[in-house]
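User: Could you go from structure to sequence for me? I need the amino acid at each position, not a summary. Structure tokens:
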């Protein structure tokens, strides 16, 4: 495998995993993007970070995008040069919006734009590589394919179906100031759940696919969950309280990924957004978007 370009630039969307009952399998992309540009060098890797993470993320070989790029290049048998990155980040970190999945997908897409055989990194291969980094596909899949996705394992293989979302389905993100590391959110989950809860979620996950594609009026019932959200409530008390209040008022709302952001399957008007802002939640009305893509032709300056 050869490197034939020295520059590439990509955009990758924020994502919500789980979507309530679809634990570790369902996800959705949002109109909130990170943009990353790479230039290959002969020296040590360097990272410029603008926006989210500019005060906290590493700026050298330890940056997740650099590490994921080098791993992908190694897997393909391609050279591993120095990497200069410019990251313009709008996806909040530690909020359940797939920032790490976006970084990994950006890395794989950038490699695709540099090599002489981009066909070696088709969407299925990208998902497999990204899931090896992430551990589960619910954020990586919509970051790659766009829209809403359902992923499942087939032995050692991974498959994804894109869902045809009804045009009337709207989404909003309620993003708190609080941060919750995914590792902390996962640590509170039990190793086993009651059979009745598994049955409950199985029915709701199937209903969610139907509701998103054909019957949006069923989204409230379809977004109920018993596998993960209530176990995490003590880790994000403000979000848990708001989620309970929204659902008590019949809003189809779920925790986005591991939280603490809340995903609502509706648009929030200005008056309600102001009230939520006073409670520490920034409202972002979103829309259905495509997955990761090149901003310009690979190799362009």
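Assistant: Here is the amino acid at each position, in order:
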């Amino acid at each position: 495998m050869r490197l034939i370009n020295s520059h590439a630039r990509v955009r990758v969307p924020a994502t919500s995993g789980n979507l309530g009952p679809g634990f570790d399998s369902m996800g959705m992309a949002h109109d909130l993007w990170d943009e990353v540009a790479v230039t290959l060098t002969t020296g040590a890797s360097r990272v410029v970070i603008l926006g989210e993470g500019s005060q906290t993320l590493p700026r050298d070989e330890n940056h997740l995008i650099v590490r994921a790029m080098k791993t992908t290049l190694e897997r393909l048998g391609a050279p591993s040069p120095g990497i200069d990155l410019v990251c313009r980040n709008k996806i909040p970190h530690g909020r359940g919006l797939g920032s790490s999945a976006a970084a990994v997908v950006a890395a794989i897409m950038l490699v695709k734009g540099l090599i002489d055989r981009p066909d070696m990194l088709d969407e299925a291969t990208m998902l497999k590589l990204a899931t090896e980094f992430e551990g589960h596909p619910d954020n990586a899949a919509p970051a790659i394919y766009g829209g809403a996705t359902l992923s499942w394992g087939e032995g050692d293989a991974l498959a994804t179906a894109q869902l045809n979302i009804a045009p009337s389905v709207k989404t909003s993100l309620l993003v708190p100031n609080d941060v919750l590391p995914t590792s902390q959110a996962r640590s509170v989950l039990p190793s086993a759940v009651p059979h009745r809860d598994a049955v409950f979620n199985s029915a709701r996950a199937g209903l969610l696919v139907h509701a998103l594609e054909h019957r949006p009026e069923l989204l409230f019932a379809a977004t109920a969950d018993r596998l993960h959200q209530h176990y995490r409530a003590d880790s994000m008390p403000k979000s848990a309280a708001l989620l309970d209040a929204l659902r008590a008022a019949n809003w189809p709302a779920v925790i986005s990924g591991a939280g603490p952001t809340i995903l609502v399957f509706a648009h929030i008007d200005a008056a309600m957004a102001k009230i939520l802002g006073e409670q520490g939640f920034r409202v972002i009305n979103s829309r259905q978007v495509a997955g990761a893509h090149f901003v310009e032709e690979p190799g362009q300056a």
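One structural detail worth keeping in mind: DSSP finds nine helices and eleven strands in the chain.
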